[in-house]
Amino acid sequence: MTSLLVPDNSLIEHEWSGPQLSFGLISNPKQPAQGPRNEAWRFYAAYSFEFVRDYLRNIAASQRDSLFLDPWNGSGSTTTAAWSQGFRAIGIDLNPAMNVIATARVAKSGDVDQAMDIVRSSVRMAAVRASVAPNDPLSTWFEKGTVGRIRAFERATVGRACECMTGNGAVSAVLYLVMFRVLRHFVGPFLTSNPTWIRMPKNAPEEEKVKVLWSDLRIAFAQAAEAVREDVMSVRSDHSQYGDVTPRLLHANAKQIPLAARSVDHVVSSPPYGTRIDYAVATAVECAALGIPFGTTFDQLRSQLTGTTKVPASAASIGAETVGEECFKFLQAVRSHPSRASGTYYLKNWETYFIDIAGSISEVSRVLKRNGTCTLIVQDSFYKDIRAPIQEIFVDICRQSGLLLLDRFDFPSKRNLAAINKGSRRWRAQSIATESVLRFVKL
Questions:
Q1: pTM, 2 dp
Q2: Which of 85, 98, 274, 325 is the least crowded, having the fewest Cβ atoms under 10 Å away?
Q3: pLDDT of residue 275
Q4: How many domains does the chain have?
């Protein structure tokens, strides 16, 4: 096992002669590669498409029949990279907005062209406004007239796709991706310095909401469609030689993976970091576009996602036998911290996170074949002045589920949420985190 700390931009060359593995270069997961920035899905991502594409090439270059799994698939970097290289892949995510984005990213060229034709036809139609439901979630940010115009475009695009191409979810996904980009552009006044958060005002007066004229909306949809087309087409390669390897994208929870035991060759993923990112709120605009009502339904989604900031009234108490000594010591330090709510809300938040991670890792181990590999990209964090040793905790949790650490590669990360939070300066002078690539093998 090798543990290396390297500066930004560098490469590590390492080889291991174990089973089912051919390993070469590994680059900084967050280091942007030259080329398109893929603006259509610029969410707070753990690693770039380029990183996982190159990693998959190294890990299974001679194993064309390998099946990859990402149990926290998000916007689909893993499944898109696997597809572009001709590998079979399964992506799991509980967030419906993320599943739409992941589906759009692997749309075939013909599907993308169909979607573009529909948009071009729709932007030429005369001004129209659809009826608006009283509780339309888009009304959180847009005044009623604008919501009606947006929904009219939705019916003219996604509605038409559903009518003309029954069962073709890829075309609808590309059209929703266009809609997502348009909405993100116009909700700018509600965005914050935290890239994972958007303000969701309750009962704001109509005059404080965003108003977009029909003419401006038409231009925005046309421009967004061209940008989405460029972004989606930029990440593919000629994989026709491999046959149909379109990924399976499942709406499911990593704690209950709907796959048979010992059915997966490799897992590559980045679990939620434990940095109290509300992944549902981060995609609130996209969820609203899909018609997910804010309130009970949206709150349920928030509560079910790993790393949720919504904690249960009482979290199960956990000991070292469940999550390991490192985690237990960290939780004890949180419990005894003098800051407000440390022993209540924040302790329950961390306990819930680690319980969810332990349950998910157990499922990952269950579906992995013997000698299969599990690669996790994780990042340490802080609670006030206490370092959260996420890497060491994951190693302990994985060991308890039969996953043995093979390699660890560390990269300093100055761009992290802890550094964004100005309140953290009260507790520590610097917030440089370490992002790590942890590679395990199933015993």
A1: 0.88
A2: 325
A3: 77
A4: 1
pLDDT at 20: 38
Domain membership of residue 414 (yes or no) is yes
Q: What are the backbone angles phi and psi of residue 412, rounded to the nearest 5°?
A: -65, 140
CA dist., res. 266 & res. 406, Å (int): 14
Return the pLDDT at 21. 38
Q: What angle do CA 17, 19, 22 make, to 5 degrees?
A: 55
Q: Determine the longest span between alpha carbons in the chain, in angstroms.
A: 65
Spatial CB neighbours of 112, under 8 Å, sequence gap ≥ 6: 174, 229, 232, 233
Domain assignment present for 421? yes
Per DSSP, which regions of 156-278 are E strands? 248-251, 264-269
Contacts 24+ apart (CB under 8 A), 207-212: 207/143, 209/139, 209/141, 209/142, 209/143, 209/146, 210/141, 210/142, 210/143, 210/146, 210/186, 211/142, 211/143, 211/145, 211/146, 212/142, 212/146, 212/149, 212/150, 212/186
- Residue 378 inside a domain? The answer is yes
* 120 belongs to a structural domain: no
- Ranges of the chain with pLDDT below 70: 1-25, 31-46, 60-62, 126, 161-168, 236-243, 314-317, 414-431
Transcribe 44-112 into DSSP letters.
--SS-HHHHHHHHHHHHTT-TT-EEEETT-TTTHHHHHHHHTT-EEEEEES-HHHHHHHHHHT--HHHH
Q: Domain residues for 406?
A: 313-443
CB 55 within 8 A of CB 33: no
pLDDT at position 313 is 73
